[in-house]
Automatic annotation (TrEMBL):
This is Ion transporter. The keyword Ligase does not apply. It is found in: Membrane. It comes from Undibacter mobilis. It comes from the Bacteria. PANTHER family: CALCIUM-ACTIVATED POTASSIUM CHANNEL ALPHA CHAIN (PTHR10027), SLOWPOKE 2, ISOFORM D (PTHR10027:SF10). Keywords: Ion channel, Ion transport, Membrane, Potassium, Potassium channel, Potassium transport, Transmembrane, Transmembrane helix, Transport. It holds the Pfam family Ion_trans. InterPro entries: Ion_trans_dom (IPR005821), K_chnl_Slo-like (IPR047871), Volt_channel_dom_sf (IPR027359). The chain crosses the membrane at residues 58-78, 85-104, 116-142, 170-189, 230-247. It is a multi-pass membrane protein. Residues 71-252 form the Ion transport domain.
Length: 290
């Protein structure tokens, strides 16, 4: 008696082949599934909206600031073994963070071409300088650019801090000026201390940077040669611009960030009723409802 098709069962070699095809498929799904789960967890930390993700990103910001303070502080002391050990630890942490952000990126090649990525790579190399050679130490000033990239926390800072919302322009102007002063101080120090006896440490470099930026020019410290003059000109031109931006932010009325529904204007007076650009009635929430 011939059974129905649905009652037929594979036997012998056919059954073995069927089982052999089924088993590898189950194995191949396990590892990618775990990898996808790990990638999703990392994405939640770097891009998510959970309290743990916010704490993680604030910790990264604190690490960035701590790294800069470490660079400045250790410039006043000799290159001892414990300093080089801390350099390696910082470099490994930055390397892990860099690899994690690249791993979760959906546009890895585009991210690799971004200047901030090059700054990260330079920072990693410079912190691992005891391994690759102390000549790369100058590149560690590029670590400052990570502080600028930490502006991705802006949305959360606006949501968490009314003070930040009120004085956002002033805070940005201060940060931009402070970063510029830090970078130029590092440039002056790294380029001058081997050849200029007047620049012996970061304090001397900072003193010269500030006097050049404010165009005070006491003349007790100068940068000789064409390179020194070009550095001085760059400090005066860009530094004065950033200084005036800070002054403008302090003098101009405080603005609040609220997108106009019609024209999209982002900044308005705190007590504005209508948009200055298009006249649309605004309903800007007060501090108790933001």
């Amino acid at each position: 008696m011939i059974g129905c098709p649905h009652d037929q069962r594979p036997t012998g070699a056919t059954a073995s082949v069927t089982r052999a095809k089924a088993r590898p498929a189950n194995r191949t799904k396990t590892a990618p599934g775990r990898l996808a789960g790990f990638r999703g967890s990392l994405q939640q930390l770097y891009e998510g909206a959970t309290p743990a993700a916010y704490r993680f990103r604030y910790a990264l910001l604190a690490f960035d600031i701590g790294t800069i303070l470490f660079i400045v502080g250790t410039s006043f002391i000799a290159r001892e073994r414990w300093v080089e050990t801390c350099d390696i630890v910082f470099g490994l942490i930055i390397l892990i963070d860099f690899a994690a952000r690249l791993f979760i990126s959906d546009r890895r090649w585009r991210d690799l071409m971004h200047p901030a990525t090059w700054a990260d790579i330079a920072a990693i190399v410079s912190f691992l300088a005891p391994i690759v050679g102390e000549g790369a130490g100058f590149l560690r000033i590029l670590r400052t650019l990570r502080l600028l990239r930490s502006y991705r926390l802006l949305a959360q800072l606006r949501a968490d801090s009314g003070y930040f919302r009120r004085y956002e322009e002033v805070i940005f102007a201060v940060i931009n000026l402070a970063v510029f002063i830090y970078v130029m101080t590092a440039v002056v120090y790294e380029t001058q201390y081997p050849v200029n006896k007047e620049v012996a440490n970061y304090a001397d470099a900072l003193y010269f940077t500030v006097t050049a930026l404010t165009t005070t020019g006491f003349g007790d410290i100068t940068l000789p040669g064409t390179t020194g003059r070009l550095i001085t000109v760059a400090i005066m031109i860009f530094g004065v611009t950033l200084f005036f931006n800070l002054a403008r932010a302090l003098i101009s009325p405080n603005k609040v960030r609220f997108a106009c529904p019609d024209c999209g204007l982002q900044r308005h007076d705190a007590d504005a009723v209508h948009c200055k650009a298009c006249g649309r009635t605004l309903n800007i929430p007060d501090e108790g409802h933001v």
